[in-house]
Batch of 2 targets.
Target 1
Amino acid sequence: MNPNKYSIIIGLAVVAAFTIIVAQSFRPNEIPNGFINDCANCHINPNGGGTRNAFGSAVENGFLSQPGPGGHVQWGSALASLDSDGDGFTNGEELQDPSGVWTGGSIGNPALVTNPGDPNSHPDITSVDRSNDISLPGNYTLEQNYPNPFNPSTVINFSVPEQSNVSLTIYNSLGQFVEEIVNENLSAGNYNVQWRAVNLSSGVYYYTLATQNFRESKKMILVK
Ligand SMILES: [Ca+2]
Ligand SMILES: [Ca+2]
């Protein structure tokens, strides 16, 4: 082989390899908390390259500044509001920037980040958190869930004025047991529960808060 041709081929190979490495490494830095899952955010192979996962395909098909490996990810409310992997949580919820306002730097709680391209990686289905309202409630309360109607996640707020064994249970419209989403001994305080309806059909459901000294039910509507 002509030595000049040989060196041109080597040169092209180096450029191609460099382009692939650059393409794999910069995109995780263009989504909020993207470094946590790195290339696994966009590719089935967690080391990057090859077939894209559902989030990577969404990016590739509509959220690049230009097609191909040189395109930059256009993070914003549109991409944040999609649920690319169909796990019931938007890309923004998974990456801790639900509104898509991130433009660099940290946002949300990195410890809660899940993979927007992997349906098996998603936020906890049910979580009980102390509310930001740290006042001590004088009464038991059970608030109306929001959003309502909902699909598939909703939030239920309640308060307990004393340390209590708390149960929060979902029933269907026939009064049949569906799921107990809280069963904990909680200290006096205000609480938020996020609940995600998994494998349930549209319809009316009831949620019941029960303690030793209190019991109340409210209605909510799942619309799929
Ligand atoms: Ca998702
Ligand atoms: Ca996911």
Target 2
Amino acid sequence: MKKIAIVGGGVAGLAAAHRLQEEIQNNNAPFDCVLLEAGDRFGGKIATERFDGFIVERGPDSFISQKPWGVELCHKLGLGDQLIGTQKEHSQTFVYTGGKMVPMPEGLSLMVPTQFLPFVFSPLFSWPGKIRMGLDLFIPRRAGNGDESLASFVRRRLGREALVKMAEPMLAGIYSANPETMSLHSTFPMFAQTEAKYRSLILGMLARKRQVMLAGKAPKPVKPGPDSLFVTLRDGLDSLVNAAIEKSPDVTFRKGQKLAGIFRDGDQWKLSIEGDESLTADAVIVALPANTASGLLQPCVPDVAKRLEEIPYVSTAAVTLAYAQKEFSHPLRGFGFVVPRDEGLRITACTWTSSKYAGRAPDDHVLMRCYVGGGAGEETAHLDENELERIVRQDLLKSMNVRETPAFCKVYYNRKGNVQYQVGHSALVDSIDAALQSHPGLFLAGSAYRGIGIPDCILNGTRTAESVIQYLTK
Ligand SMILES: Cc1cc2nc3c(=O)[nH]c(=O)nc-3n(C[C@H](O)[C@H](O)[C@H](O)COP(=O)(O)OP(=O)(O)OC[C@H]3O[C@@H](n4cnc5c(N)ncnc54)[C@H](O)[C@@H]3O)c2cc1C
């Protein structure tokens, strides 16, 4: 029997465990596999609370369906019929600017205008801003193909206004990142690829739209799951966590097992667990945040640890508020709004959760979630709960004229919990992979490396498990 230890029960560790389960089940692989989780529950950043008819996500609330690995895993785990998309009737997103909610113009494809009229008539951008965005059609492509920041790229191609009103709140917001330091290649590589191929982003997006329309004339491949860019699970995202564990009966899942150290022991690895217990393994998947992994690996694998230390993390907090429907004056027709940095609010975005997804609140209540902190200013995320509630309610009053008292307000902190992919991130990850070659049997997985979204973490965990299978059966 080959022993495999997975450390960390977030979605990456769980995806690795499930892939190893498949190997044991389908190919009789002689693996003895254990997953160690420090906390008192599995799921890591994925955590769902249910009470009084509410489904409240503490961390992620959905995942993108265009990257298929999330939807595919749900199907494999028997959750296909629980996938739900966003509610079609509310699909508008707003930008809070100049003291008003301005709808995002139709036809914006990841901030690039692909429809002329809605863009021209949109009050979101000034005329000089619109003309500057249109200059993308004529600006030559950048020489060289090195990484650059999102801010530098957007300023160069579309101008400052596109950066301030769209790219920073919408795109950097997804990563809780500062666009001035955020890697374009590791977050939105398609922009760099589009520039390399078509020179202009607008021409590239139009060409892609044409291809999609032509493909639309051919019979459509059957796409599993709801037809929606973002999907979630009917009863909350932790259904994915529970199903991954339930459908991996040959893996031992142990919670309350905090890894305290990891050492080489001949051909094996020795893991010491807090409380004096230890175990040995032929292969170890460290599926932890890089800032935790670096400390644990420092004594035995300092070359890898040193590089992991270079991956920064920032703090964010999510503040969820519920209101009684009958007292609530705002119609919440949309998915919510984003807030450009210089609009005088401390919240960076607000999701109108009960409008975006069905079943998140009982019919007589509405549910919203506001975000603070991140790479462009994390101090707000360190305030205490009372102060955060006060700030958020003040911002909701200014932006949405919400005067009502919430039925509840819950603050969820992610202290140093948001990984930052900075310019040069993919070269750093390549160098980590190269350093790992000198430490056979040691593998890393998780959001720190090649994608932070749930589907990326699932792919990364699955691929890491495949590398382990190859290593142990070679
Ligand atoms: C607030 C927030 C909102 C997000 N929203 C979305 C979203 O809507 N859609 C989306 O796709 N992605 C979203 N993400 C990103 C995504 O949720 C994460 O990137 C992903 O869940 C990380 O998974 P992971 O397995 O890499 O790590 P984690 O989930 O961090 O799991 C690591 C696990 O390791 C455990 N651990 C730590 N130290 C030890 C130790 N010493 N020994 C043993 N175990 C240990 C932890 O307890 C944890 O369970 C969001 C992230 C955050 C923070």
